[in-house]
Amino acid sequence: MRRLSSSPRPHWQRRVEEAGLTWHSLEQPYWDESAFYEFTAHEVDVLERATNELAAMALEAAGHMIRNRLFTKLAIPAGAIPLIESSWEAEPPSLYGRFDLIWDGTGAPKLLEYNADTPTSLLEAAVVQWYWLQDVFPARDQFNSLHERLIARWKELTPWLPGRRVDFCSMDDAEDIATVAYLLDTARQAGLAASMFRIEEIGWDGSAFLAPDARRLQTLPLGVDDPRRVRPAPYRGPHRLD
Question: Are 173 and 209 in contact (CB under 8 A)?
Answer without folding.
Answer: no
